[in-house]
């Protein structure tokens, strides 16, 4: 074991104290978005666009702001910033394209999920040196996002109701994974005596 690998956990654990609530907030937002999509299955395309846009923008701003703020201590902060930017851009595209069709929305969400998933996987892998960091949950959430995006691309003709149900289930699953990761990160910081 190198001196470099020994020195990594303390800065990471210190960082966990600062970021666990951001991950938790993102998870809660995703679950809320999923519940809204499932509770109102008759939601119009326009309403779905607005809900998706607000979720994506808020999620992206929180993630980007946190990554920029902690760039001095966050290894791979650029990947987290990229995730935030992808999220904000997807939300803005949805908001400023009010006449979006169900199929166009499907493709927007699919590409958003794939890009978000890839950046989440790469970002999660950056934390793999610290087993208690919850990096595996980030990778699993990223894989779920990529699979969801691919399912939408492979089966685009399932209709808006099918899209809403699949989107709701995905958002809840993704949110739960983030919430689990947040508490794992928080527990890691507590064990290190940082919280």
TrEMBL record:
InterPro entries: Acid_resist_chaperone_HdeD, DUF308_memb. Keywords: Membrane, Transmembrane, Transmembrane helix. The chain crosses the membrane at residues 20-40, 46-65, 77-97, 103-123, 135-155, 161-183. It comes from the Bacteria. PANTHER family: PROTEIN HDED (PTHR34989). This is HdeD family acid-resistance protein.
